[in-house]
Amino acid sequence: MCYNVHKARTDMKTTKKQKQHYVDNQEFLAAIIKYKERVYNVAIKEIPGLAEMDDEEQFAVLKTWKSPNKPRVGNYIGSCFLKIATHLSYRPNFINYMYKDDMVCDGIENCIQYIDNFNPAKSKNPFAYFTQIVYYAFLRRIAKEKRQLDIKDKILEKSGYDHVFTVDGDTDSGYNQIKSRVEMNSKR
User: Fold this and answer.
1) Angle at 156 between CA 153 and CA 157, to 5 degrees
2) I need a surface site. Which of 1, 7, 38, 129 has the fewest CB within 10 A?
């Protein structure tokens, strides 16, 4: 009897559900292919000779093609970009930044900017492609914010701390602590 209970417990462990990913790669790929077909159908009407070009030439032309009639990216693709950027921002190397929302926005913007560079004929993994785009957008935002922080620190240093850390003529010990911390950080 004890054996049957143990066997039932092990059977329950093997019937575990697989973890569902937040972006289904196959569905995402199908949506991008569908979007690229819509772009092609509009471009064929505006670009003469596009139908006679081979696939590589078509891809190169469509990658740089700008038109007000170009179809918009669909909601599903946009939601995938948002999920990729949001979940990437939860990684330990991005979690504690104050400007995380700006990082997510930059990532989504870059995904939309570079969606035409994704070639489904060469890669069947759009999730990895756009995750890399978001990752490097995050790194660029961090570098940009760091430059802005350095500029702010230099301005504070050149203008003198006394002007910045006085409140209506009174100096407070809290402001002196902030001042000493800024001085310490600027010496690093």
Assistant:
1) 85
2) 1
